[in-house]
Write a structure and sequence with these properties.
Order of helices and strands: HHEHHEEHHHHHHH
Strand content: under 5%
Structural class: mainly alpha
Radius of gyration: 19 Å
Distance between the termini: 7 Å
Number of strands: 3
Length: about 240
């Protein structure tokens, strides 16, 4: 069973400054959420209250409340008499995440209204991914693709939808970390990201929605196949 190592705890200690003078469970949860998304704490990792609390300089009660928040977000799970672990998604979880993504993302595109659309941030996410490919920095490509979908949903101008999408994508990254092949998962979709941007720039909202629906379906099939091959038999 994986546990957090010394290097990760040193990195976590660097985050202590982010807590400022008003340490709260929400801020600690923000830090841990980011670290989980970045792959510092991989699926199946047991999180030690003593070591993480010491690294961040927070009380056991604050840390436990943070754990509860992240458990509610489905990023952590409490195992009876064993402790708190970063969740290992099931294949059904991955399928359901993609169903949710399709409902959110396609609905956003469908409801955009009349063009022109504000696509600068979408285009910037595509460019970010392209720069990552040129440098062969595949985690950059992965992050850029996450940004692309966040910015796509942001076109709706809804804080609630943005928050929901952030939660869904944070959970999805748990699957990405198990597969651990961001090039295979994300590089093929850079061209399709650009195609969606170009289609929206032309004002063809319905065509963009269909491109997105096909994109998400292909992505789901590819990830489920890769994930099934790497899914741990024991967490």
């Amino acid at each position: 069973m994986a546990t957090e190592d010394t290097e990760e705890l040193h990195a976590l200690a660097d985050d202590r400054a982010l807590l400022g003078r008003t340490s709260t469970a929400e801020r600690v949860a923000d830090i841990l959420r980011s670290r989980i998304a970045e792959g510092f704490f991989l699926p199946g990792t047991r999180l030690s209250e003593d070591s993480i609390g010491g690294a961040l300089g927070v009380s056991r009660n604050t840390l436990r409340e943070s754990f509860r928040l992240l458990t509610h977000e489905r990023l952590l799970e409490h195992r009876l008499n064993r402790g708190v672990f970063v969740r290992v998604l099931s294949v059904d979880d991955v399928q359901d995440i993609y169903r949710t993504r399709s409902m959110i993302e396609c609905a956003v595109v469908r409801s955009l209204g009349q063009p022109p659309y504000a696509l600068d941030r979408l285009a910037a996410a595509v460019a970010e991914g392209q720069r990552g490919v040129k440098k062969r920095e595949w985690k950059v490509v992965s992050t850029a693709n996450i940004h692309f979908h966040q910015e796509l949903v942001a076109l709706a101008g809804s804080e609630r939808t943005d928050e929901l999408m952030r939660s869904v994508l944070a959970e999805l990254r748990l699957a990405f970390h198990v597969v651990d092949d961001p090039r295979r998962l994300h590089e093929p979709y850079l061209v399709r990201n650009q195609e969606i941007v170009d289609t929206l720039a032309e004002g063809r909202r319905d065509a963009a929605e269909q491109l997105l629906a096909d994109y998400l379906d292909d992505s789901r099939v590819g990830l489920v196949e890769a994930y099934t091959q790497r899914l741990p038999h024991e967490a």
